[in-house]
């Protein structure tokens, strides 16, 4: 498992945070955080699909890509399969979102970009009991193979936890 962290410049991270945090930014309710998960074992989230199957579905795609593409080399070497923004709301106790993988294709690469500081780390599973945690920090960009088992945590101290998730497939 190869997880790498990168920090993007403050001017870019502040711009992304302003775009996504604007009152007119559209959010859509999803009953689960992982597609196909039973609602009894998962928690809801708000989502905004930027792109699915390399087709833009958002008027905000260009502004998001402009500020993140210089730090994601796969924009130039891979095909963008999906980009979506997830917003998780607080929960009364710490709750781990169901572990999942983003894609099974060999050579697929995922990124998680943290829009702002929050609690609720992303857990990367090395084994059933051993995990590596990455904490949400504004401007932090995490790269990992898409077939890596991972999960998020909902916030319990912060107002929300917002991430941009990219999946790139080899060309």
What does the model show?
- The protein is of the alpha+beta class.
- The chain is built from three helices and eleven strands; from the N terminus they run E-H-E-E-E-H-H-E-E-E-E-E-E-E.
- The protein has helices spanning 10-21, 61-68, 74-77, and strands at residues 4-7, 28-30, 45-52, 55-56, 78-88, 109-114, 122-125, 131-134, 140-145, 150-151, 161-170.
- The radius of gyration is 15 Å and the shape is globular.
- The two termini are 22 Å apart.
Q: Strand count, sense and closure of the main sheet?
A: 8 strands, antiparallel
Helical run tally? 3
Beta content: 35-45%
Distance between termini?
Answer: 22 Å
Low-confidence sequence ranges: none
Overall SS class:
alpha+beta
Roughly how much helix do the residues carry, as a percent range? Answer: 10-25%
Instruction: Spell out the helices and strands N to C.
Output: EHEEEHHEEEEEEE
> Would you count the extended β strands for me?
11
- Using only CA atoms, what is the Rg? 15 Å
Mean pLDDT: 89
């Amino acid at each position: 498992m190869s997880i790498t962290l990168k920090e993007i410049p403050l001017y870019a991270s502040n711009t992304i945070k302003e775009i996504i945090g604007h009152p007119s930014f559209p959010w859509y309710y999803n009953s689960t955080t992982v597609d196909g998960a039973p609602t009894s074992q998962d928690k809801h989230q708000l989502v905004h699909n930027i792109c699915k199957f390399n087709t833009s579905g958002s008027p905000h795609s260009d502004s998001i890509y402009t500020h993140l593409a210089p730090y994601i080399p796969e924009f130039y070497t891979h095909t963008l399969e999906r980009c979506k923004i997830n917003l998780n709301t607080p929960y009364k106790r710490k709750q781990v979102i169901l572990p999942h993988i983003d894609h099974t294709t060999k050579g697929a690469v995922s990124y998680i970009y943290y829009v702002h500081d929050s609690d609720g780390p992303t857990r990367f599973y090395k084994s059933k009991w051993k995990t590596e945690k990455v904490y949400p920090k504004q401007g932090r960009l995490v790269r990992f193979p898409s077939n890596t088992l991972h999960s998020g945590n909902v916030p319990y101290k912060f107002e929300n936890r917002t991430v941009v998730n990219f999946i790139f497939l080899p060309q």
